[in-house]
């Protein structure tokens, strides 16, 4: 639960909080806006908390003798279906609209190329069919088909993420300990993923489902431009003072159903 804020500053309100993560408590503090705020505007704080969870997970993997094998200029996992919460989609759309027109046009062309390649591979049709939404084999098959289409994320440049500081939580939560070579074909090899004790992406998906009445609460990243044309602003539906919005998010996060335990194999998903 979010504790009461300790200090008030001119710029905002300092909130301290503790989240149960694995067997311990993750203590953190953040300056949240004093006035009206949306959940989308609090994403930088949520990314920082996820970063702290990821650092702890990486330390534990190292201590167990199975260090994280993800490294710079390895974009193998950036050819997978990437879930993006509605709030992150809103933030990414706003960011893209703030770019110079020339850069926007280049990005639009990349999104178009990716969508056309996925359409030609029959993957867009499968995504739109929604047969896979309930989970199980269809979603696994969709993930395999998507990967085998070999279409890079539109934000991938020289095998590196061009939006690293603002990349989606699902990208931050995808860490593996097996050889990077195995990521070249996750359908063929048993890629060993690291299990996050708390995935904040799931909290965002859950809040998205509540406001959108959509069984997923997220969109495939490659649909971002098409989605942004709707003008939908999900953050407006989870709004209040900075303290109120952070408190609501943390309460939802602590009520998020835990990951299924067991061998962690690497696959993105909701
Ligand atoms: S957003 Fe970045 S990290 Fe995520 S799939 Fe795209 S290029 Fe890779």
Characterize the biggest β-sheet. 3 strands, antiparallel
Structural class: alpha+beta
Q: Can you write the helix and strand succession as a string?
A: EEEEHEHHHHEEHHEHEH
How many helices? The count is 9
Helix content: 40-55%
Task: Write a concise keyword list for the protein shown above.
two-stranded antiparallel ribbon; alpha+beta; 9 helices; globular; disordered N terminus; 3-stranded antiparallel sheet; 270 residues; single chain; binds iron/sulfur cluster
Structure description:
- With about 270 residues, this protein is α+β, with helices and mostly antiparallel strands.
- It has one domain (about 5-255).
- Helices cover about 40% and strands about 15% of the residues.
- It contains nine helices and nine strands.
- A three-stranded antiparallel β-sheet has the order 1-2-3, covered by helices on one side. A two-stranded antiparallel ribbon has the order 4-9.
- A hairpin with a 4-residue loop joins strand 1 (about 5-10) and strand 2 (about 15-20).
- The chain is globular, with a radius of gyration of 19 Å.
- Mean pLDDT is about 85; it is low at about 1-10 and about 260-265.
- It binds iron/sulfur cluster (SF4).
- Iron/sulfur cluster binds near residues 82, 153 and 161.
Could you give a short description of this structure?
The chain has 270 residues and is an alpha+beta fold.
């Amino acid at each position: 639960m979010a504790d009461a804020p300790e200090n008030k500053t001119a710029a905002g309100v300092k909130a301290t909080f503790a989240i149960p993560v694995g067997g311990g408590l993750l203590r953190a503090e953040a300056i949240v806006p004093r006035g009206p705020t949306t959940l989308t505007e609090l994403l930088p704080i949520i990314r920082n908390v996820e970063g702290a969870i990821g650092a702890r997970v990486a330390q534990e993997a190292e201590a167990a003798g199975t260090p994280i094998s993800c490294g710079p200029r390895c974009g193998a996992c950036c050819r997978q279906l990437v879930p993006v919460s509605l709030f992150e989609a809103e933030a990414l759309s706003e960011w893209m609209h703030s770019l110079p027109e020339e850069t926007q046009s280049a990005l639009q062309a990349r999104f178009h190329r990716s969508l056309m390649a996925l359409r030609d591979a029959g993957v867009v049709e499968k995504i739109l069919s929604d047969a896979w939404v309930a989970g199980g084999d269809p979603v696994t098959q969709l993930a395999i088909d998507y990967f085998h289409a070999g279409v890079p994320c539109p934000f991938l440049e020289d095998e590196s993420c061009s939006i690293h500081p603002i990349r989606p939580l699902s990208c931050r939560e995808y860490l593996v300990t097996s050889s990077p070579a195995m990521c070249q074909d996750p359908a063929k090899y048993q890629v060993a993923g690291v299990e996050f004790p708390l995935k904040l992406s799931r909290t965002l998906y859950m809040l998205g489902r509540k406001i959108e009445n959509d069984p997923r609460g997220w969109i495939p990243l490659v649909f971002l431009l098409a989605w942004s044309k709707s003008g939908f602003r999900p953050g407006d539906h989870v709004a209040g003072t900075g303290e109120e919005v952070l408190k609501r998010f943390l309460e939802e996060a602590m009520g998020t159903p835990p990951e299924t335990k067991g061998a962690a194999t690497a696959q993105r998903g909701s």
